[in-house]
Amino acid sequence: MPGNMIMKNAFLHFLTLLLFKQKGKHIGAVLISVIIIFLLSSVLFISSSLQKTLLDTLEYQSDFTVSRVQAGKSVTTPVDWVDKIIEINGVTKVAPRIYGRYFFAPREESFLLFGVDFFDEQSSKVFESLVKEVDLKSFLTTESMLVGSGVRSFLSKHYYKENFSFKTPKGSFKKVKIEEVLPSQSGLISNDLILMPIDLSREIFGLEENEVTDITFNVPNDAEWDNIIAKLHLLFYDIRVVEKREIKKAYENLYNYKGGLFLILYLVTIVTFMLILYQRYSMVYSTERKEIGILRAVGWSIKDILKLKFYETVVVVFVSYIVGVVLAYLYVFIFDAPILSQIFLGGANLTNHVTFVPVLKFGLLGSIFLFYAIPFLAAVLIPAWKIAVTPPKEAML
Amino acid sequence: MISVENVSKVFNEGTAQAFEALHAVELEVSKGETIILSGVSGSGKSTLLSLIAALDKPSSGKITIGGELVSKLPDLHASAYRAKSIGFIFQHFNLLESLSVEENVIAPLINSGLDIVTIKEMAAKSMDRAAISHKASQQVKELSGGEKQRCAIARALVHEPELIICDEPTANLDRANSLKFIEILQSLYERGKTIIVATHDPLFESLPFVGKVVHMEDGIIVNREQGADQSE
What we know:
- The complex is a heterodimer of chains A (397) and B (232).
- With 397 residues, chain A is α+β, with helices and mostly antiparallel strands.
- Chain A has 16 helices and twelve strands.
- In chain A, the strands form two sheets. In chain A, strands 1, 2, 4, 5, 6, 7, 8, 9, 11 and 12 form a ten-stranded mixed β-sheet that branches. Chain A has a two-stranded antiparallel ribbon with strand order 3-10.
- Helices cover 29% and strands 26% of the residues of chain B.
- Chain B contains six helices and ten strands; from the N terminus they run E-E-E-H-E-E-H-E-H-H-H-E-H-E-E-E.
- Classes of the chains: A alpha+beta (397), B alpha/beta (232).
- The interface between A and B is medium-sized, with 30 and 36 residues.
């Protein structure tokens, strides 16, 4: 029976003995490894999760967003552009939008206020996942808004439990009911977001009936995208066009950049750690030398020694890796990565409480393992080999 | 059985610190014979033992054991030779301190291809012979000098080697433990083992089972005396 054979295997027996009896020797390496793997995995889990959330959200967004620019400055966009854009062949689902930051002067905070035409098909699709549990009919018949969890807690803290009064440019106040809080899973995009009907937002921002902040539309045929951009520039001399693919790239770059910084830190840390390990095994750790010398003297070959050290290290590497990854998973996806999440989400004016959507990229986890395991093995095996090839008597001294 | 022919050993060869530890040593040891290598520290006894045990290679000359040229063996074969034919007892015991007596004793057999149950049975026999069975599960670091020596003996005998090599085996023992060690040595002699002991302990010189006493000085054999054992 294979199980019985494994139990009776003398080499495995001896390997287990050494690992258990000399656990003090490995504990330092395991602890440092667990910390390194934990940090790196956490960073990768966070960045993968954020990227996925953002990219999933982008999937529902319009292919293009256009707005008017005058003297390099964004100004309001005439709503009649909608009619001109819809005339272009290949363009579908044109919708006006109003959005902007509403500055709450007394506390120096701002919210991202979004006015949406909820009857518009595309807009509905964009916010479908956010407003799943909201009764849209009742929401639209009253002057209500949907708020992100960050906005909700900020307002509650300042005694706005049921309603909030927006100050309009005319100096009057517009009282709006807080209808619902957006789900925390969407925290990344919705934390400081306020969603409301487009006409209500127009009133709060003081826009005219014929003004919006931008217009969104789709072009189903990707091959036509550049043509459409060219046509838009012919149609409007003062237009700014933002493509979805640009936003996608920007998101990817942002989180790759932040992840990359951590990767550099990780590489520096791991190189330092491996150097320490290398030094420990090559010279400083005299009991290691003596142990190898003794085993050589009692008949172990260089190959036997390397086999022992290899398996010993593989166990240490595996245990550290699994513990590090599991802890990182719990930290990010169960406890929502306190501290580290703020490094990634820094810049948001309201404290962001994001629930990370679990994303496991096995390729990435495999790469972490290789980047960690290979130098670790080398750091142990090269000095072990150096000791093993010296005459046993010398090594035992 | 053992033939050492014109063997020299130079450490740090080719450097300014070059040092000749052995010079043109010639030695014959018959099967089942016990010989004593005597001499002061630095006379070359330990170096000669290391070369016979294939723990090191001579700079020149050759060593054959049972017809096999061991002085030129590549590592894999030299290790196999040590694992099969040599039982080495060191002056400083050279035990794995973090392991128990039994775990130290099984170490030479780990790569023998035998299963752990068989190995443990062999270790039990060997510990019996060395009178250390009662301490089998005790950590080596908790043992006295004499117990450590008996653990080292059990380890050296576990694979039933033909040749037992002892380097200053009683240097770290008191008289009572030294005498116990000699008793074990005698029992090994009676079982037909070939034994080479490097020592400057006078206790060994007049032992009845010693066939030859070889005196060394500055890496050279200066004198050979017939021992009390005339059985050859």
